[in-house]
Here is the input.
Amino acid sequence: MSRNTNSKIKGPILVCLAHITALALTACGTMVPPDKNLVAGDDGHRKSINLFGPMEKSNPDADNLSRTAFDKTVSIAEDELGLTVEYRTYTAENYQEKTYDDVVLGRVRNNMDDLYLLNPDTIQILGSEGKLLDLSELDSAGNLRDVVRIANTVDGKLVAIPQEVVAHGLFVNKDMFDRYGLSLPETPEDLLECCRVFQENGIETPIGANRWWLENFVFALAYADLYNGGNTDAEIEALNNGEAKYSDYMRPGFEFLQELIDKGYIDAEKACTYEAIEGEGPDFLSQKTPIVMAYWGAANTETAYGNPDFNLQVIGFPSSRGQMPVISNTGYGINVDAEHLEDTKRVLDIILSDECLQIYTETNKVISPSKNIEVDCIPALKPLNDKVDDNIYVLGSNAGMKVEQWGNTCLIVRSLLSGATVDECMAEFDRLQEESLRD
Here is the structure.
């Protein structure tokens, strides 16, 4: 993909990282643990590796589960290896107009750090440039779920691994469905019927939407068969070499969104301005809206949807194959020319070990990338978790696809919300595909 194309998708991808992994939560001051089991480098000082990410090392007393979980695993690696993981962080004021993704690309290309937290588009770019180490040689890589391998493999190399699998779903007020005798929707037709009944009973806008996550409907409809029909590799290869068209896959999802808009089941004008959860969340929590969409962690977080006054259920998005989770992943990658390459590999292997992932999973109540670890999820998330455990999902981000998915689809959905026709949206996918074929 060209840099021109990727410059268009920075906003959605950065928000994907900020909202999904909860790394935009407030961090306290930098704190490096006391030295233990010191192992000296050539200069007599404790060895270290450098991690570049969006947040600093958190204060152990800070109420910040995501950072605490990661820091716990880093601390284990530091103690076991007798080194220090130095956090080098992105702050917007330091980089002015540059996004996190822009900064990461520059730092990796200039070999400025050892280990990086990467968004899907930068995984794809840097992997295709050969800048990221093939992590399949790590012992921990042998424990990965297939979904992680598929999402983060570029040119046959596994170039990034996350500490959690991020699943998106429909958050529904089961009490409101029960009130009108409605079953939870499996197919697009089911959802349309539910919305019709809700609207006829005075619920003006049945689906609360924001400007970031409506693309999940598109992915569920576009790729249900691709990822669950037994022919995934061949279909992706056909898209990458131009034998198949992304627009043909995407059209049913965009037509469905257009129908939801035309029937007033989604308020396109509000969706264009609403931030995720902040916009549609109050109406959902006050039971004015029965359906919203969000990521797994939002069901565990009281500042999001973790403490509702009703029976919350989180299900997959409607598709031809039933309820379908949509998965997107960030990931940790190692610079192939890292100054401290061997130490960095050891650190990453430890924090991705089943021992550390068990700690991370239990702390954050998330889906582990390891097939050996089960999450003890709340009842509301069980429908979504059961699907993922059964390997039923679609990917919203896949580094093996030449046309970046999550950010580009988000922007094109926004065009639809702003009045573009479905045909105009499909023309944009065709343009992106043609551009990818020239690269």
